[in-house]
Amino acid sequence: MTTSNTMLAALTEIVGAQNIISEPNQMASYVEEPRRLYNILPSLIVTPTCVEDVQKIMRWAHANNVSVVPQGGNTGLVGGQVSMDSQEIILSLKKLKAVRDVDPATNVMIVEAGTTVLEAQEIAENENRLFPLSLGSEGSCQIGGILSTNAGGTAVLAYGNSRDLCMGVEAVLADGSLYNGLSKLRKDNTGYDLKDLLVGAEGTLGIITAASLKMFPRPTTFETALLNIEDPAAGVKVLEMVRRKSGNKVTSFEILPTLGIDLQLKHGLAERDPRSGSSPWHILVEFSLFDGEDAGALTDTLEALFEEGLISDATLCNSLADRKMMWLMRENFAECQTREADGIKHDISVPVRDIPELIERCDKAAEKAVPGIRTFAFGHMGDGNIHYDFLAPIGMPKGEIRTHANAVHEAIYEIVDDLNGSISAEHGIGQMKAPLLQQKKDPVALNMMYAIKNALDPKGILNPGKVLVKRN
After folding, report:
1. Which of 89, 170, 271, 369 has the fewest CB atoms within 10 Å, counting from its CB?
2. HSE-CB of 454 using CA atoms within 13 angstroms
3. Helix, strand, or coil (residue 6)
4. d(C-alpha 414, C-alpha 420), whole Å
5. Nearest by Cα to 213 from 96, 72, 106
6. Whole-structure pTM over 0.70, yes or no?
7. Helices (H) and strands (E) in the chain, counts
8. SS3 content of the chain, % helix, strand, coil (to 5)
9. Three-state SS for 424?
10. With the CA atoms of 388, 329, 147 and 464 taken in that order, what torsion angle do they form, in degrees rounded to the nearest 10?
């Protein structure tokens, strides 16, 4: 076994002492993941400044059978970016920040993995283009990480998830070799799409070091509204009519329980109540308009929704400040839960038409498992991805809800299975859901995944224990 001192000496020679963290008291920002569920310290953390150094690190790790955990902005919610063993090293991509190319004619930019999503948005904006990926952690999550987990966000309805926004990747493989697939081509029919093996693989097949990302025409204006609806079934009907009336103008469609807004007001996360009247559920809908398109498309659609009795009221944003406030409210749905009580979280997806049945059945199942539990289902209704969370009953002692987690998980995932849904919509598998994947994934699909893993990483040193558990 390679000792920590041996690792430190070898990697210091490769990247320099300034790019290595070996003292436990300096590791917090790399080790403490958002949900505070995992806390194993690695042997050390290495922060290379160039792709060549990533290659050298992997050549050394491959030769010495040392496991490497690739890490982006450390915003992952399933423990895919942190250690499972104290003999591992964490390889942070945060210093790979170069912008290699911006091509407005092709609508493509090529950036390195440490570029944050917010920085990618700004690069596109400087060219009067749009990089449409948007999520709450966009100021800290990095391109390498969001591609490795195939993150979604609030604009999937119109633009797709991370995989859809990526045209190609560069990646360092387990043996240190470099795959250069930084294509800008819309059409390239020359065999297997290797990019799609690496996107969504959570660093188990290779370490993404750069990516070709799509840019789009930049909207000239947005029209945003918070709608009052009676229940999720009404939400599905609203979505159908909105899409029929607006064509491709609708870019976001989020379902929100009124409890989430109540808690934000309670905990000082919202400066004012954005709701127009009381309602058990709400839809946050946004249209994007471009040059040559007349304003008022959303207003016209709202009138039709009122006529059909699908909404009882609506708050229309009249300024950019109103829009910013509304989206900040949406982003705070996770934080208000943290401030209110302990909880149990799920990131699941089902066909859009089945969302009402999902919520009805899951609410009943959770109540049966934990009487008084507070349901908190919200998220991307437009693409079927629901963040299905539950808060501890009022008065339950801190920490007790965790003792009921397995019972709630089993009940929820059984319903998701029955509705032909997915146990992970946009957060990935990581270490949290790796055992569950063994139960839920089609056995033939699992065998194919193991075959690919064994072919590209025969020693099993890339992010071991994540996505695929070790088979005997």
Report:
1. 271
2. 9
3. helix
4. 10
5. 106
6. yes
7. 17, 19
8. 40, 20, 40
9. coil
10. -50
